[in-house]
Amino acid sequence: MRTSSAAVSHLDLADGPPGFDCLPYPFFHRDGPSLVPRREIPGRPSVFGSEPARSRNAGEKSGAPAPEGIGMRISLPIALILVAVLSPSAEATVARTELTLTLAKGEKPFPAVKKRSLTCDPVGGTHPFARQACRDLKRSDGDFRRLPGDPRHSGCPRDYWPVTVTARGFWKGRPIAFKHTYGNDCTRNAESGPVFRL
After folding, report:
1. What range(s) does the Subtilisin inhibitor domain occupy (predicted)?
2. What CATH class has 94-192?
3. Per the omega criterion (within 30 degrees of 0), is the bond before 111 cis?
4. Integer Cα distance of 46 and 52 in angstroms
């Protein structure tokens, strides 16, 4: 049995299943009933493969310019690499040494009679002996309890005139919060050296 061209034209107007553009009614031929594809529509999957049909107006030509935005997608990773190489590393930015040192008379850290700032690598701040203080801090790796001190002040008197020192800030990125009370100024110089010689 054959279907007339008029019937095929009529069936051609019907909507096919979603995602396919084909006749929804069987078309009889010598190999048996089958769905007959009517035409491919841009954006819909083809019945003969997984690739969507392409528009006739796509204008695909060999050597056609790349779509807008591809250059940006390609250059973005390169830009990120350049930023990582040219900018200072995160470790160098975070591992800073910035300290605030104070000195107070008595057993309490306030009121402070002296207050100085100290930076290392590079050496700076308002500390009067910044270079020597940074040298001793490097020897103790920022541990204020292990400062080499000043051996020239050995044999200090036992007079109790307490002084309290504090240190707050960062040593190579590590938070520092130190407080200690010395028996007198001589002991302070002997044990802390130039660090608390404010």
Report:
1. 97-184
2. alpha beta
3. yes
4. 6
Domain positions in the chain: 1-62, 94-192
- Residue 43 — pLDDT band, cuts 50, 70, 90? low
How far apart (Å, rounded) are the C-alpha atoms in residues 78 and 150? 54
Nearest to 130 by CA among 139, 140, 120: 120
Give 102: exposed, middle or buried? Use CB within 10 Å, 0-12, 13-18, 19+: buried
96 contact partners, CB below 8 Å, separation of at least 6: 119, 170, 172, 173
Contact 173, 119 (CB under 8 A): no
The model's pTM: 0.54
